[in-house]
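Protein modeling request. Please complete all fields; requests missing the sequence field cannot be processed.
Requester role: graduate student
Desired output: 3D structure, token encoding
Chains: 1
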Amino acid sequence: MRLSEIAAQLGCRVAGESDPEIHSLSGMEQAAVGQLTFLANPKYAHKVKDTQASAIIAAQPSALLPTLLSSNPYLDFARALELFYQAPQPAPGISPLAHIAASAEIGEGARIGPFCSVGEKVKIGKNAILHPHVVIYEGASIGDDFLAHSHAVVREFCRVGHRVILQNHVVIGGDGFGFAKGADGTHHKIVQSGVTVLEDDVEIQALSNIDRATMGETRIKRGAKVDSLVQVGHACVVGEDNILCAQVGLAGSTILKKSVLLAGQVGVSGHLTIHDNAVVYAQSGIGHDVPQDTIVSGSPAFDYREWRRAVTAFPKLGEMVRHLRDLETRLKALEEGKSTNG
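Delivered output (342 residues):
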């Protein structure tokens, strides 16, 4: 594919005299002749002179390479990848090795692979792709353009919107972790009678669990992206365009507002609210509400600027303590000397 053809499909324009043939894409340092690369961060512009790529996606024309001009090079690099790589899909139609309940409704254009199981009264919209071993429990409702990879599960009565992607071993609507303790110390399971709701354009990465609510619902709102090994507890609300990175854990009834970012291994204690545009650094512990437009870090979490100062001081605490003790000893000796002379 010529660079000019790629530009036309992406709605971009080309700067430079040549129009090289492009067969694939690669990062700047790994790129070879015939490949398209990108420059998203200007601080890496010095690397352009060493790349072997035949062309580059960038915000400004390059003097060294034909340039596909873009206001968002990283986004257009992602879009260009779609022109060169299409993931394998099950064959069109429903595999004879799949089990589809008689009362299930499957929209047109479905591709359902071997050993899938779709329960009674399930509704699935148009163009669904279910890879082998996907299981949809009774009464689930799923919108158009659904993509579920092998061993993904949507439990009973859960609701899934349009263009939702579930990676391998995702569980939507597993039981919330609820038990009532008896007088004898045993734990009685609380029936989890609520559901999980995924709105449009949600993606859940591999091995993540979105628990159903005890009553009511757990909801993942439009455009939220949930990384691998994430636990979302019962009755949580994950807001629009949230990013939850790997190994995040939300205890029950946590509310995340719009455009919240939780970095890896953040833990949230539950029954609290993290407000719009908040950012929580990796390995932080959240035990209180987080205000809008703030950045916090640490466990317990607090303002990231104070946290940076605290982290810088932490390795010096031993020396500071020794210095303080030395000062206390000298001050005590001085006071004792004054008392003796007095």
